[in-house]
Each structure stands twice: as C-alpha cells, then as structure tokens.
Amino acid sequence: MKKTVVAVVIAAGAVAVYLLATPKSSGPAQAPGDAAAVAEFETAAPLSAQTLAGKTVSLADFKGTVVLVDFWATWCDPCKEEIPDLVKMQERLKDKGFTILGVSMDEEGKAAVQRFLTKQPITYPLILNNGERPPKGWVVPGLPTAYLIGRDGTVRRRWFGSKDVVEVEAAVNAALAK
User: Fold this and answer.
1) What number of other Cβ atoms are within 10 A of residue 101's Cβ?
2) 3-class SS at 31?
3) Considering the chain, what is the average pLDDT of its residues?
4) What share of the chain is helix, strand, coil (3-state, %, to 5)?
5) 49 forms bridges with which residues in the sheet?
6) CB 76 within 8 A of CB 64
7) What are phi and psi for residue 56, nearest 5 degrees?
8) Packing angle between helix 77-93 and helix 165-176, nearest 10 degrees?
9) What region does 40 belong to: left with phi over 0, alpha with psi -120 to 50, or beta?
10) How far is 53 from 154, CA to CA, in rounded Å?
11) CB 3.0-4.6 Å disulfide test: which of 7, 143, 148, 151 passes with 76?
C-alpha cells in the first residue's frame, strides 16, 4: 500500500512539473500522436544547429517557406518508419515552397546519423541536436515530434508521437495555400 501511495505521488509530481514547464502559449493539450492546431499562432522559437557537413543551418534560413520541423532519432522505431514517407512528401512538395528540417536528437550525433543514412537516405536538410534535451523554446515530450511552421514563421500545427503522413500532407497543403 505504501509503495502505491509513493508511486501515485511521484506520478502526480511528474505531471505537475511537465505542466509547469510547458509554455502556456503551446496551445491546447493533446495526447501523443494527436495533431492539434495551435489555438493562437505563436512565433516558432529560434532553431539553429550544424549539419553533418559542419555548416550551421537555422530555421530562419527558410523564411517564406512552409517547414515541417521533425524531431527524430536513429534509435526511434516510429521515426524510422515515417522517414520514407517524409522523403516522398518532401520530393512531391519541395517545388511549392515546402521543406522538412530534420532535427536529430541522437546523443552520438554525427556518427549515429551517418551510419543511419547508409541504410535510409534522407533528402531533406538535417541538423544535429547532439542529445535528447530539446532546443531552447521547443517542447519535445517524446519522439517523433513535429511542428508545422507557416511561411510567416508561426507554428500552425504540431504532432507529438507517430504522425499520419496523409494528415500531415493535408496540413502542409493548407499552409502552402495561405
């Protein structure tokens, strides 16, 4: 009985810490895997990191483009399952002003991503976060996590957990139409 009470108190504390740490402007709560429109479009936090080639790439480099920021890792099975569909979507929509910016959350960084790319090529830009701690201003409760950024730099939608790529593409097309 005592262990159960302790477990409940710890779980409640973890939920409280998560709720307090999540920015208030992050929109309505959602379950992992659910997509949600952001209640009031918020400006996406700055995001900048190095590519495999050592070049610094920033979200700001894509101003005027619709961007799907996809947080992923080479060890994440749902991430690996989505990548082939994301690559196809990138190829279909790149000429319409769309790109995917993959953010590797691998602690091994460059080495892990290079090994992965020998098995699964990725044609969209990749940057290295070099760890599981999300970049400042970004909420990444688990992997995969994705944010759809409009041409104006605001967050339009987000997905926590596995994504339905058909739904993502519909949201991308709606953002491209604006």
Assistant:
1) 24
2) coil
3) 84
4) 40, 25, 35
5) 57
6) no
7) -80, 125
8) 40
9) beta
10) 28
11) 143
Cα–Cα nearest to 164, from 178, 144, 150: 144
Q: Which residues of 47-86 are buried (b: 16+ CB within 10 A; e: fewer)?
A: bebbeeeeeebebeebeebbbbbbbbbbebeebbebbeeb
Query: Is CATH 1.10.10.10 what the domain over 27-176 is classified as, yes or no?
Result: no
Whole-angstrom Cα distance, residue 37 to residue 17?
24
Q: What does the block give as tokens for 150?
A: 């409009």
The single residue listed with the structure tokens 């701690």 is 133
The answer to whether the CB of 76 falls within 8 A of the CB of 144 is yes
Domain ranges of the chain: 27-176
114, 172, 177 from 97: Cα distances, Å: 27, 10, 10
Note the pLDDT tens digit of each residue in 48-95: 999 999 999 999 999 999 999 999 999 999 999 999 999 999 999 999
Residue 129, token pair as written in the block: 């976060």
- Burial-class residue 29 by CB neighbours within 10 Å (0-12, 13-18, 19+): exposed
